[in-house]
Amino acid sequence: MSLVQEFVELWTSVEGRPERLVWRTRRFRVTDTPTTLVGPCDWWAPVARYDVSPGRAPLQISGWRFQASADDGETHVFDVRRHDDRWELVRVFD
């Protein structure tokens, strides 16, 4: 696994699921069913330091994990997340 923090181009379906990715000038097509990555809701941050409820913080979709392959067969598992109006590549698994 490599930790990466690079912006990438990501195309999604109408439902918002990743379909294609361009990373370091290479084009990859999603070849499996993407899995959502979840994290605490943004609005929860101001109250996160207080014990205001039993249980866990509310969660939201924070990104996607998916396998994608280039035309030559090179395949990776990618973790991506939204950062402002762009997609950021966070991790790459070989």
Describe the structure.
0% of the residues lie in helices and 60% in strands. The protein has 94 residues and is mainly beta. A hairpin with a 2-residue loop joins strand 2 (18-23) and strand 3 (26-30). The N and C termini lie close together (6 Å). The relative contact order is 0.30. The mean pLDDT is 88.
The gist of it:
With 94 residues, this protein is mainly beta. The chain has no helices and 7 strands. The chain has a 6-stranded antiparallel β-barrel.
Which key terms come to mind for this protein?
single chain, 94 residues, 6-stranded antiparallel β-barrel, 0% helix, mainly beta, 7 strands
Question: Order of helices and strands, N to C?
Answer: EEEEEEE
Helix content: under 10%
State the low-pLDDT regions, or none: none
Going by helix content, strand content and strand pairing, the class is mainly beta
SS element count, helices: 0
How widely separated are the two ends?
6 Å
Shape: elongated
Strand order of the largest sheet: 1-2-3-5-6-7
- Compute the number of strand runs: 7
Chain-averaged pLDDT = 88
Sheet with the most strands?
A: 6 strands, antiparallel, barrel
Radius of gyration from the alpha-carbon trace, in angstroms? 15 Å
Query: What proportion of the residues form beta strands (DSSP E)?
Result: over 45%
